[in-house]
Write a structure and sequence with these properties.
Elements: E1 12-18, E2 24-30, E3 36-38, H1 51-56, H2 64-81, E4 91-95, H3 101-108, E5 112-116, H4 120-130, E6 148-154, H5 163-173, E7 174-185, H6 190-193, H7 195-198, E8 205-206, H8 209-216, E9 221-228, E10 231-237, H9 245-264, E11 269-270, E12 274-275, H10 276-285, H11 287-312, E13 318-324, H12 332-346, E14 351-357, H13 364-370, E15 375-378
Parallel strand pairs: 4-5, 4-6, 6-7, 13-14, 13-15
Antiparallel strand pairs: 1-2, 2-3, 3-8, 7-10, 9-10, 11-12
Helix pairs in contact: 2-3, 8-9, 9-10, 10-11
Length: 391
């Protein structure tokens, strides 16, 4: 019988589930803390060799698109976690720091930064991109006399075969009272209800709020366990551990509750961007802010509909197609230039405008629609930009 890696319970069951790669992987579920892990297999280091980046990061070296994506993600994280970071942060360590995007932001805030990134291509990139070096190695090979005010990692611990050893090593590197901040996939939200997307060969551990508490409260004072998107996060202090069985049971109930909410919410996706399960979760967790945002965007949507209806000027005689970028909000320059182009034509003729967004896909149906017009106007606002779609 396999024991749970987190709570050491023997009350476990094994099962198989299809992974995102399309083949089944063997898993072990603990009935006590609900932690799930891949069954032990021969350990291979796919990280320092660059194999992980080659197979799972899309490219072995960071592309300009990847850099932009990582920088945007780091900035969003900083905004979300800034209240949990130590005041007057002196030195920071990030484990699995990729190209150093998050550390770069901490460095701009005045902190000394140290990054551990096993892939040498990604580790070396920070010196070129942000002017600070990183160490290309795994945590178990990292040696230093420094003690860090902040130790963070984002989607790293789920890759390690022994999460308790990982946490012990962080304890040894943390300054007294130092902050621990970690983020990892959430099994209660499981990619907004998609277990096949959640189970992935490189992920050896699958945490829920209860198993996170069980692991981190052994070594730290846990301050917060919450959700960031479809991920879990934990904030803890390097102070006297304060494990409480009642607190553990509370997190266990919380994880079960959110798992049931995700399971019972109908699975509905709109244009791959709007997932009903995600919005149900956000409604319950951020009710006031969520409703305020819905009201704000609802008002903008109504205003945009009224704006577009007025711009089409259905009383005009000559049909003209305007291929442009228009919204009732966002970039003011594009919105105003698009309108002033039409106003220039309206001063000379009675036009019945058909508005089409230049960012929409050009299909055969749209081409036939365009060709029914006597005139096509293209432009009014920037069109030939790096972020314009493949059209």
């Amino acid at each position: 019988m396999h024991k749970c890696l987190i709570c050491k319970s023997s009350n476990t069951v094994t099962f198989e589930h299809e992974s995102r790669e399309g083949f089944p992987i063997e898993l072990l579920e603990c009935k006590e803390c609900k932690h799930i892990s891949q069954l032990p297999k021969k350990e291979t280091d796919i990280y320092t060799s660059g194999e992980f980046s080659e197979k799972y990061r899309d490219k072995a070296t960071p592309s300009p698109e990847k850099i932009m994506q990582l920088d945007k993600k780091a900035l969003k994280r900083l905004y979300f976690y800034e209240d949990y970071l130590p005041k007057n942060l002196k030195n920071s360590l990030e484990i699995g720091s990729s190209i150093g995007s998050f550390l770069h932001l901490l460095k701009l805030s005045g902190s000394e930064v140290t990054g551990i990134e096993p892939d040498p291509a990604f580790a070396d990139f920070s010196e070129h991109q942000y002017s600070f070096p990183q160490e290309s190695k795994l945590l178990e090979d990292f040696k230093t006399d420094k003690k860090f005010d902040l130790i963070c990692s984002f989607h790293v611990i789920e890759h390690v075969p022994d999460p308790e050893d990982f946490v012990k090593r962080m304890k040894a590197l943390s300054a007294p009272g130092g902050t621990i901040l970690h983020e990892f996939p959430s099994m209660e939200l499981h990619s907004w209800g998609d277990l096949k997307e959640t189970y992935w060969q490189p992920h050896l551990q699958y945490f829920n709020a209860a198993s996170v508490y069980k692991l981190f409260a052994k070594y730290f004072k846990v301050e917060k366990i919450g959700y960031y998107g479809s991920a879990l996060f934990v904030v803890a202090k390097n102070e006297e551990p304060d494990y409480s069985e009642s607190e553990f049971k509370s997190y266990k109930r919380k994880a079960a509750y959110w798992k049931s909410v995700i399971r019972m919410t109908p699975s509905l996706k709109v244009k791959k961007k709007i997932n009903l399960k995600e919005h149900a979760f956000r409604f319950f967790t951020e009710k006031n802010d969520y409703l305020a945002k819905i009201w704000l965007f609802g008002r903008y949507a109504l205003k945009e509909a009224a704006f577009v209806r007025k711009e089409k000027n259905k009383g005009g005689k000559m049909p003209v197609q305007h291929l442009t970028y228009f919204r009732g909000w966002e970039n003011a320059g594009d919105t105003i230039l698009s309108k002033t182009v039409r106003d220039s034509f309206n001063s000379k003729a009675s036009i019945r405008w058909q508005l089409n967004k230049v960012t929409d896909e050009v299909t055969q149906q749209r081409i036939e629609q365009f060709n029914q017009n006597k005139l096509i106007v293209i432009g009014g606002g920037g069109l030939f930009l790096p972020d314009t779609n493949k059209n």
